[in-house]
Amino acid sequence: ALGMKLSARKAQHAKRGRYVLGHTTQRWARKFLEDLDCAKSLQRDLSFVHVERGAGINDLVGFRKNFTRLTLPSSSSSSSSSSPSSPQSSKSSSSLLPPSQQSTAGATSSSSSSSADMFEKQLRGGATHRVFFLDYDGTLVAEENLENVDDEEAAEDYTRNMRPSSALLSTLSALTKDKRNIVFVVSGREKCQLDSWFAEVKNLGIAAEKGCFIRWPQSMEEKLLSTSEASSTTTRGRNAELKTTWENAMETSSEWKTDVLRLLQAYTERTDGSYIETKEMSLSWHYDAADPVFGHNQAIELHRYIEKIVSSSVVDITQYSYHRILEVKPKGVDKGSTILNILSRLARAKIVDVSKSLVLAAGDEASDERMFHALRLASGEEDENKSSLYRRAAFSQTVPDNVRLDPRSTITCCVGRRPSPAKFYVYEPAELVRLLTKVANDY
Description:
The strands form three sheets. The chain has a ten-stranded mixed β-sheet, sandwiched between helices.
């Protein structure tokens, strides 16, 4: 700097001087204290438990104090002592509540009881309709561990093990027979697969590939598809492989898939244990069976390369670290936008009055949290445990004008007890299915 010409020093000062003078030591200190105050205010609303991660490693995880278990009165007492989903007997939940923290379970029993009474009151109350949005993998069926499966067979084995059981199909059929119930399975799977599995459940709605394709319940299909044709927002199509009619909800090109697929193939060849899942409108790179550190680093690098070859205005690239998946899909497609679109279409066709309906969404992973955020926005609830920046990053869709929900009749449920924007949780898919079965039979 001392040897720099005067003109160069002036140019550098003009470029950096304003920033340096504006960001003083006092400003940085004040901002640091403000962040501490914000963290402290968030902490007041959390209760903390130790989570065992194995190898003697424990994490301290904060749960909202009003984050309670979703139950119904007649099953709550029995499930606490004998149900495989209770904290004392569930293998998965015991890792969340070790012996030193067992008192936490007792402390939440009263709140669980009150939530059960509240849920029953809503089911028996004056709701004109009950709308259910249910994720599939990990929510209605338990996900299988693929670590010991050869990478060439991983996708096929994953599909075979996740097929719905006859008991689940029976529960969904019973739910959809009640004219008050509108049930949608909102999944990332392809429509051909979901169509073959649920073809017999005629009044079940399905959103495939997170909303790229929609199969409306048969009882309201004609009315909704005619509304779609009038508004020219979607098209209807029938494929020889499909048993039912599906609506293409995305008017977008998939030309980007060729270049992205070529890049995914290159990374699959150099990453042992990884494989590609190719769908009609999206691509997913799975690295759950790869070396944990190497696979994660490869996914980050792959993400950066895809951003260079495809415009961000065309696709969304999402890395799910927990499930170890890198997903590339059309811009603006997510489960939150999808359920808002479905509710808006139902309201526009005058099939339901969403403001007087009970709406329940259940899911187990990051993509399902878009549904929870969407319903929080539609019901006017503020997400106090997350910053505004987090909300904007997690969900940026505008709520349609005709979708205004009653927060007292809006239920969001996380499958698995973990930090989540959902109001309630259940411990495992089997517990949720039992709950839905009881709703179908008794309510």
